Amino acid sequence: MFGLDTSLTILLIVCLLAACIFEFINGFHDTANAVATVIYTNSLKPHVAVVWSGIWNAIGVFAGGIAVAMGISNLLPVEILTDTNIYHNVALIISLLLTAIMWNLGTWYFGIPCSSSHTLVGSILGVGLTYSFIAEKPGNYVNWAKASEIGMSLFISPLFGFSLAILLMYTLRQVLKKKTIFKEPDGNNPPPFWIRLILLLTCTSVSFSHGSNDGQKGVGLMMLILIAIVPTYFTIDTSREPYEFKKNISSIEYVLNKVNPAYLDLSDSFEYVKVKRYVGELKVQMDTTKDFNAIDVTSKYNIRKDLIVLGKSTKKLLDSESINLSVMDKKALKHEVTALKSLTDYAPYWVILMISISLGLGTMIGWKRIVVTIGEKIGKQHLTYAQGASSEIVAAGTITLSTYLGLPVSTTQVLSSGIAGSMVASKGIKNLQGGTIRNIAIAWILTLPVCITVSGLLYYILRMIL
């Protein structure tokens, strides 16, 4: 397979299957976020709810794009993946996969809602930090800028969900005259049709948005595996033709020539020089290449590295106040750089399909443990229709916005905090179960340091062995 010997082919298959297992676990670990409300309000039977959620999770993977996936895959600088000993790359992949799977399974077993995003990001950072200590060439081998951006997203989103759920519950009480929606279900009887329809729509929205965001994490993970083990085929999109990008490069050069360096401050001048340098290198590469399949893997890595740096430096320039470009020129520059980056920001159809199936099937299995926590153990009262609907509206909206911004977000944390906020909005802070909130908070705090430590140690050990 892909020109690898038998042992590496087996390792590649094992790693790809492990990525699918991670996404499968992510499915049943996070299923509760979508189905708990419809189950505990008798809007859907459990077996119907999980199948319905699984279908929309799978659809969401295809509809979400790949911005979040690329954010995950770009957490590790290209230098780590260019190790001439491919078994070291295998050690890297196995370490972060094992760590992520073990932590997710452990928290699921104890019924603790936990962030798969935190788990995966922590595992990736762990191997990056370890490599920084053992690399022959000293350097920074963690993309701290991207890590900080992702970390801020993961930190703020649950606080945002908690606050917005309180605000939404308050608004509903002021606007809605019918108070039926604020009542608890009557035994096992389903809610009125209009409430049931609202809850079904919110369940569908959370499922779809979860697939569009969390599914991309699996896609990004699988792309990391492919780039690390078979870089010849997956470092860049070799199905594209070099001539496709010549126009983009010419347009970028045209806009850059409008910039007057004299008006730039020191840091912006540095970024401007970098952008011009990498655009020049890419232009030479595109002019001298007729087929991406014909160039060696080092050249492909260099193209990937140039495009990643180009994207970062261009963003800094566009965000700067000292760059003297019109709004139209800034939009044109951003558009052309994004088009150029499509050479690296891609995922084959079969990768997206595998992750979609894994997440969809996982959603239909193993859901009950977390559902019980979400539905019964966060608040002291039974979940009302309004609490279920408001928490899911908040979750779906937050996740959709994060996907649009290309940021991973924890569905578990957003919806759990949304339900907590809706409980507080009903009867105050005393309406929360302290033990459950404490366990969720501890898992939230420990996930990153535990995953960083475990994956880092595993990587060091496996690297020595392999």
What's the overall geometry? globular
> What are the low-pLDDT stretches, counting only 5+ consecutive residues below 50?
none
Instruction: Give the total of domains.
Output: 2
Portion of residues within helices: over 70%
Let me know the largest β-sheet.
none
CA-to-CA gap between the ends? 21 Å
Could you tell me the radius of gyration in angstroms? 24 Å
How many beta-strand runs?
A: 0
- Derived from helix and strand composition plus strand pairing, the structural class reads mainly alpha
**What is the helix tally?**
19
Mean pLDDT: 83
- Helices and strands, in N-to-C order? HHHHHHHHHHHHHHHHHHH
Percentage of residues in DSSP E strands: under 5%
What does this protein look like?
Helix content is 74%, strand content 0%. It is globular. The chain has 2 domains: 6-176 and 187-232 and 347-376 and 386-414 and 440-465, no CATH class; 236-341. The chain has 19 helices and no strands. Helix 8 runs parallel beside helix 18 (411-427). With 466 residues, the protein is mainly alpha-helical. It starts with 5 loop residues before the first helix and ends with a helix.
